[in-house]
Amino acid sequence: MTEVTKRILVTGGTGLVGRAIEKVVADGEGRPDEEWIFVSSRDADLTSSSETKALFERHKPTHVIHLAAMVGGLFKNIRSNLDFWRTNIHINDNVLHSAHESGVQKVVSCLSTCIFPDKTTYPIDETMIHNGPPHSSNFGYSYAKRMIDVQNRGYSEQHGRRFTAVIPTNVFGPHDNFNIEDGHVLPGLIHKVYLAKQSGSALTVWGTGKPRRQFIYSLDLARLFLWVLREYDEVEPIILSVGEEDEVSIREAAEAIAEAMEFRGELVFDTTKSDGQFKKTASNAKLRRYLPEFQFTPFRKAVKETCTWFNANYANARK
């Protein structure tokens, strides 16, 4: 009988990435010496320092994957930048400080490519995070996420803590937020295609369809999270992404979804809606130095699997 030596607490454990990690662990990627604990906002209000501390005292983790955050799509960010800043700053500070105070051996937090400067050269890489202001549309969320990197360096320098972070590009997959108003672009489009197919109407895509994004399938990201937790020892963040050559336009993403959902209607682009940041092409060169053989799920295959899941779980997924 293998002794459990790692108790891994996953905050935001019922979200898109948390569910993907749970599935990958359950499907054979977990190890006998690991105990996995997935928690959500029902288990503790992480904006409360006392509730966060109590959560850590209850579970006594040795390792933490920190996914919990206030998140939303472009238009929710534009409306609520202050809320995104304050909520996420509280969550991150409470989680990292509780991890430090309770002697957690390693924390892996989740950042986002939106933290990078709006005015920059491409491809962006891990050295460029603090080179200038992020895009104005989601500055509250972006700056709050950037501060995790600052805190990680502080805990490392002052206390010798192994706190690090990953920077995924646009994540999608089963258990995503498919809310059309507040979700991210790809799950929102999947829901829109579903409704357009039901009503026999055209599919209206917000914006010009020209912005470009690198999309990473949540199950691929989950496998990479396990590698970072077990093997990656730098304090500096690492970008987890498909290659630059796999970047697609919003139009191409919409067409892939239409094909996966067998939607035969017209695609209409509402150019009165904001495009947000035109591109944020990220280099995965650092990841490839560590894992040159890692195989990403092809985009259209991942879209097809996500659409199949959405169709099968529509009653819950649309909320």
Automatic annotation (TrEMBL):
<dbReference type="InterPro" id="IPR001509">
    <property type="entry name" value="Epimerase_deHydtase"/>
</dbReference>
<dbReference type="Pfam" id="PF01370">
    <property type="entry name" value="Epimerase"/>
</dbReference>
<keyword id="KW-0560">Oxidoreductase</keyword>
<dbReference type="GO" id="GO:1904906">
    <property type="term" value="P:positive regulation of endothelial cell-matrix adhesion via fibronectin"/>
</dbReference>
<dbReference type="GO" id="GO:0042351">
    <property type="term" value="P:'de novo' GDP-L-fucose biosynthetic process"/>
</dbReference>
<dbReference type="GO" id="GO:0047918">
    <property type="term" value="F:GDP-mannose 3,5-epimerase activity"/>
</dbReference>
<comment type="similarity">
    <text>Belongs to the NAD(P)-dependent epimerase/dehydratase family. Fucose synthase subfamily.</text>
</comment>
<dbReference type="GO" id="GO:0010595">
    <property type="term" value="P:positive regulation of endothelial cell migration"/>
</dbReference>
<keyword id="KW-0511">Multifunctional enzyme</keyword>
<protein>
    <recommendedName>
        <fullName>GDP-L-fucose synthase</fullName>
        <ecNumber>1.1.1.271</ecNumber>
    </recommendedName>
</protein>
<dbReference type="GO" id="GO:0001913">
    <property type="term" value="P:T cell mediated cytotoxicity"/>
</dbReference>
<comment type="pathway">
    <text>Nucleotide-sugar biosynthesis; GDP-L-fucose biosynthesis via de novo pathway; GDP-L-fucose from GDP-alpha-D-mannose: step 2/2.</text>
</comment>
<comment type="subunit">
    <text>Homodimer.</text>
</comment>
<dbReference type="GO" id="GO:0050577">
    <property type="term" value="F:GDP-L-fucose synthase activity"/>
</dbReference>
<dbReference type="InterPro" id="IPR036291">
    <property type="entry name" value="NAD(P)-bd_dom_sf"/>
</dbReference>
<dbReference type="InterPro" id="IPR028614">
    <property type="entry name" value="GDP_fucose/colitose_synth"/>
</dbReference>
<dbReference type="GO" id="GO:0005829">
    <property type="term" value="C:cytosol"/>
</dbReference>
<keyword id="KW-0521">NADP</keyword>
<keyword id="KW-0413">Isomerase</keyword>
<dbReference type="GO" id="GO:0042802">
    <property type="term" value="F:identical protein binding"/>
</dbReference>
<feature type="domain" description="NAD-dependent epimerase/dehydratase">
    <location>
        <begin position="8"/>
        <end position="243"/>
    </location>
</feature>
<comment type="function">
    <text>Catalyzes the two-step NADP-dependent conversion of GDP-4-dehydro-6-deoxy-D-mannose to GDP-fucose, involving an epimerase and a reductase reaction.</text>
</comment>
